[in-house]
Specification:
The protein has strands spanning 4-7, 10-12, 18-24, 33-39, 46-52, 57-59, 67-72, 77-82, 91-99, 102-105, 109-113. By secondary structure, it is mostly beta strands. The strands form two sheets. Strands 2, 4, 5, 6, 9, 10 and 11 form a seven-stranded mixed beta sheet that branches. The termini are far apart. 28% of the residues are buried.
């Protein structure tokens, strides 16, 4: 069973930074793509950033210039560096990995931006 474990969330002030981590139970090159999503209660899950096995990166317009996705293959880990945090960034963030058409999800990590 593929397992994804997110960490790094927490409470930060507006304008602050966080680095979220997603550690996979196996070599991340096994996956076609890894991605970060966020979802507030009652709302659709939003794709924030993704990176595929070839290194192609996507960012949602709302986070361009503030969020950076990266990976460390040796550690089986994908990161999301979040800078210039805003109140509207407050929600749960989820890591996903895909193998062909199959999706795997972590349990999420909460980001709260408050003064």
């Amino acid at each position: 069973q593929v397992q994804l474990v997110e960490s790094g969330g927490g409470l930060v002030q507006p304008g602050g930074s966080l680095r979220l981590s997603c550690r996979a139970s196996e070599n991340i090159f096994n996956f076609n793509k890894m991605a970060w999503y966020r979802q507030a209660p009652g709302k659709e899950r939003e794709l924030v950033a993704s990176i595929n096995v070839g290194g192609t990166i996507y960012y949602a317009d709302s986070v361009k210039g503030r969020f950076t996705i990266s990976r460390d293959n040796a550690k089986n880990t994908v990161y999301l560096q979040i800078n210039s945090l805003r109140s509207e960034d407050t929600t749960d963030y989820y890591c996903s990995a895909t193998i062909l058409s199959r999706y795997y999800w972590g349990q999420g990590t909460q980001v709260t931006v408050s003064s």
